[in-house]
Amino acid sequence: MSKHVLEAVRDLLPTFRERADEAEKLRQVPDASVKALEETGFFRMLQPQRFDGLESDPVDFFTAVKEIASADGSTGWISSVLGVHPWQVALFPDEAQQAVWGSDTATRLSSSYAPTGKATLSDGGYTLSGKWSFSSGSGHASWVLLGGLVFNEDGNVVDFKTFLVPRDDYEILDVWNVVGLRGTGSNDIVVDDVFVPAAFTLSMSDTGRCFGPGQEQNIADLYKLPFHSLFTTTISSPIVGIATGAYAEHVDMQQKRVRAAYLGEKASSDPFAAVRIAKAGSEIDAAWALLMNNIREEQAHVAKAEKIPLQLRLKVRRDQVLGTQRAIDAIDALFEASGGRALAEGTYLQRAWRDAHAGRVHAANDPERALKMFGDLEFGHKIDPGMY
Fold first, then answer.
1. How far, in Å, CA of 388 to CA of 373, rounded?
2. Are 48 and 55 in contact (CB under 8 A)?
3. Total-model pTM
């Protein structure tokens, strides 16, 4: 089934590229594009089969994301983010899964995981309040996943949870006025004293150890992978896709470009231009190969019912943050060598440059923390729980 989704997604790429300007003007991906993706089955790739999902190989999911982002960064970004959320919902208690998909298996969810909200213990659940930023694709979703710290009666933090909240219980603030990834509609979410039943929450300490109550119903190996491995790859994959599109655009432009300052020399005849694309292409390929190879290694451990080694989980994070940097370095090199015409509004390269750098500032792409964790483990130091 994943093969058919990939083929259908590839058929849509020219349309996504044509709508890139529209997405920027709207500051969110056009509804027609989301609907078209829904019809391919893309949003069901990581959804449980018992709710009409495909339970696809995550490598196929990330490959589809990369393809979409190669046509338009904003469309690729929200596709990745909205598309990965069914995986986490599958870890929630069955009551929550039924609430999300029981009457409509096409339900979509956005998110904002930074624990900027506050939850207090209530009878049978929690009372949640706060404001969360950067909820990409929120205009295309009817539920949201929110990170929040849980406080007891003494005001002490007792847990860090993800809270599942329906659309009627939150407000979307239209604040997304930015220079990159303009079409992602990454607006703010506001919740004011909303009761969230315990069954609609998931402890990050559980997900950190690859556990969730929903594994009782959703037994596929897919749902035994580490949360942070999948979710950080969700952020890097569209950036590698943007770089892939930038590479193709640059090569096409250089084959047509004549350099007036160099007596009409064809840009493609410049030996330095050939070296640049060789280096850029290698960086993009290396980024992608490491990202996918690491996911494959984790899958191999799960298939053998083995605990995934901490070193591998930190290797995933190491190569994920460096993969993002490799992709951006490649885009920078290509953009710098593309000439003044690449600056024109509406061109792919200037948008790719803006979108990739916008994606770089996501918390998942913070290189120092991820690299320090890996290095500390190699040196035998204690590793504090974090994004691994």
1. 9
2. yes
3. 0.95
Tell me: the pLDDT tens digits for 33-67? 999 999 999 999 999 999 999 999 999 999 999 99
Please state, in angstroms and rounded to a whole number, the distance separating the CA atoms of residues 384 and 368: 15
Tokens 């909240």 -> residue: 165
Fold of 109-203: Butyryl-CoA Dehydrogenase, subunit A; domain 2 (2.40.110)
Three-class DSSP category at 219: coil
Q: State pLDDT tens for residues 288-318.
A: 999 999 999 999 999 999 999 999 999 999 9
Beta bridge partners of 121: 126
- Delimit the CATH 1.10.540.10 region(s) of the chain: 2-102
Q: What is the DSSP string of 298-337?
A: HHHHHHTTPPPPHHHHHHHHHHHHHHHHHHHHHHHHHHHT
Q: Does domain 2-102 have CATH number 1.10.540.10?
A: yes
